[in-house]
Amino acid sequence: MQTEHGRALLACLEGRAAALDELLRSCGYSPVDTANDLPSALAAVTKRRFALVLTTATLPGGDGVGLARQITALPLSSYPDVLILSPEGLRLPEASRLAEYGAAMLTAVEGLADAAEALRKRERPLTPARSARLEGLLDRLGVPCHKGRDVLTRAVALTWRDRENIRNICSAAGEPFGMTGKQAERALRHVIEAAWRGGKMEEQQSIFGDTIDARRGRPTCGEMIAHLADILRREG
Q: Among 93, 151, 208, 216, whose Cα sits 20 to 30 Å from the Cα of 104?
């Protein structure tokens, strides 16, 4: 039985759409939406949740790398993987930054299934600007240098990529550090409690506002992760 991977967006000239649509469906993507230029592709991404965007290297209004970059800058609840179908040897601006845009080049359509699978399994880092923003927020909140801060940073990055990751976030965030889900949760609670004991209240209020239950006085692990991820998502 074929594995279903979810909805895909195909951004290409109309003449190539039929063959690529069929290929995407054969790889387990359904339904498949289409867009014939960069602006319409971006508009589609803001309206629907896509698991994958397949685009050609050049399309009206821009290029594939530019599309991937602009998708990453949108305030989405989930960021799709992006495959850019490009002739071998073609050089595109910003191609060296494909990983941070959740994108990869594909030179032959025969490799689509393998390339899409590799993207699904690949870790997606925060962009340098988002990473710096997150570090600044953690410093302002008073989060100490501790393994729990590393777990928190990873948890926020995973939740930024897909808001649904929050459901199993402690296990996923702790895994690279050799922690079980319970150990990761304890580490997260430790740094949050330390921050709210020793950090500046005005900074915490500035960042979290009235989103925290006054009776608790500090956010839960899930609230901390989700709120920071939302800040990164909104700021693009």
A: 151
